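Below is a typical protein record.
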Amino acid sequence: MKRAVIYARYSTDLQNDQSVEDQIRLCKAHAERLGLNVVGELFDRAKSGASMFGRPGLARLMQKADADEFDVLVAEHPDRISRDIADLAHIHKTLRFRRIEINCVNGGAMDTVQIGMYGVVGQMQREEGAKKVKRGMVGVVRSGRNAGGRAYGYRPVPGRKGELEIVEEEAEVVRRIFSLYASGIAPRAIAATLNDESVPAPRGKRWNASTLNGNGQRGNGPAVESDLCRQADLEPRAHGERPIDRTANFTNQS
């Protein structure tokens, strides 16, 4: 009797955590129909199929393949293994070299043509989904609302999705940071001053220079917005006036 390993995955923490158990249940029934002996169950929860990296379940699967611990990989669908054309082809090629078959509940035994076809479809669906998410977020931002993520200096308005209100205590810290930077004090020195005064950081226990330096590609942080922070208008604004990104720049970077 051939040995089988089941692999399951779901993409984000917004999906049902029971998705993995549902996939494993379907795969077990499929393996039983094929007369396979299931010797292992591997999975990745809330992991994107866009890459092989950061997926411990898949990494363990490939290790088991290298050790010749199974003969058939069972998954609900090829896109559970990967939604990237190159990655799916690489996994298939590696397993085929080791005489391991990929057999899916939806699709059956996978050959090179099917892997290519499912790989193209999976990547197209992933890319189209990413475009729709981005389009939706742009619409939210254009309407003056927050598209998500914790913004230092603001807090959500209860019952009003996407709307923010100023947290005055944090806003004072933001004003001070921009004023200090505008006067020529380096981000590292500003962070040290805040730590010495035990000012709570946006995330974690301490302020770091990287928290204040910002990101050049995103166009945030006092180091990036040096021209703006030298202007007189350093005030955060409430919802309806479109919050200034300067306050929200210190978002989960410490």
User: Anything to note?
Assistant: The CA atoms of residues 184 and 226 lie 10 Å apart. The radius of gyration is 25 Å.
